[in-house]
Amino acid sequence: MEAVLGRVVAIRRYPVKSMLGEEVLAAELTAAGLVGDRRYALVHRETGRVASGKHPRLWPDLLACAATYGGGAVRLTLPDGQTLSSADPDVDRVLSKLLGQPVRLTDTPPAAGLLERAVPEEVLRHGVDAAVPVTVDRIGGQHAGVNFVDAAAVHLLSTSTLDRIATLSPRGAVEPERYRPNLIVQTRVPGFPENDWCGRAVQIGERLLLCVVSRTARCAVPTLAHGDLPRDTAALRVPATHNRVPRVPGSEPHPCAGVYAEVSRPGRIAIGDAVRLADYD
């Protein structure tokens, strides 16, 4: 392994897809990612599609809800402060009323695993409330049918990328919550250093080994209000302007920030763990 690249400064999981999540001090990672991450989602009862903030006009209130993981069931906190459990018999009715759509909360991904994603460039052009074109994407990658991750088991983001976006933003700041990373790595290389991690191995702590499989193409979600955080178009516009790169070599350029990785060797990690980068043998 090469010299230390940085250290883990935040570990986050999102027990219900597209709801606010929680920060933890340590976590176990299996082949499917952080235990408890994207364990549940809401599924539209009529279309069978997974509810996602990627289609903000259809699901404007998902990011006003928060979820915490309790070793099986999740506890939900609604915008008015009401709390309920995923095990409550009334949970589907309450969430359907809140969101204005007939939904069911489930820990079993539907066979098709489809969600609707507003075209990011059209969101920047017309706003999150506009009727913009959407694409229909399949979630899960190699984990389809296991949980509700988007494309890979783990999402990593560096402090350098966050600092660069903040510097280029009119606000001079950006909140990491907007990008929904699992792991935030403190790094010293300026700019968007994750662009160079694709295809490489990342060891965290004594055992965990990840394989970085792609850069993370950003959608409309960073621009949305996240709980008390207001909307921020620059959270997407900055990557669209300054880091439009292929997700993988040979693909079309996209606004990117962070990387996706698969778990090559499961393990436990904690805040402060060293992060090392190396080539595969």
Topology:
Blueprint: E1 4-13, E2 22-24, E3 26-30, E4 33-34, E5 41-44, E6 66-69, E7 74-77, E8 83-85, H1 91-99, E9 103-106, E10 114-118, H2 120-126, E11 134-138, E12 154-158, H3 159-168, E13 183-186, E14 201-204, E15 208-217, H4 234-242, E16 244-246, E17 253-265, E18 267-270, E19 274-278
Parallel strand pairs: 12-13
Antiparallel strand pairs: 1-2, 1-13, 1-19, 3-4, 3-18, 5-9, 6-7, 7-8, 10-11, 12-17, 14-15, 14-19, 15-17, 16-17
Describe this entry's structure for a reader.
By secondary structure, the protein is mainly β. The protein has one domain (4-278): M1 Pyruvate Kinase, Domain 3 (Beta Barrel), CATH 2.40.33.20. It is built from four helices and 19 strands. The chain has helices at 91-99, 120-126, 159-168, 234-242, and strands spanning 4-13, 22-24, 26-30, 33-34, 41-44, 66-69, 74-77, 83-85, 103-106, 114-118, 134-138, 154-158, 183-186, 201-204, 208-217, 244-246, 253-265, 267-270, 274-278. Strands 1-13-12-17-15-14-19 form a seven-stranded mixed beta barrel. A three-stranded antiparallel β-sheet has the order 4-3-18, with no helix packed on it. Strands 6-7-8 form a three-stranded antiparallel β-sheet, with no helix packed on it. Strand 14 (201-204) and strand 15 form a beta hairpin. The chain is globular, with a radius of gyration of 18 Å.
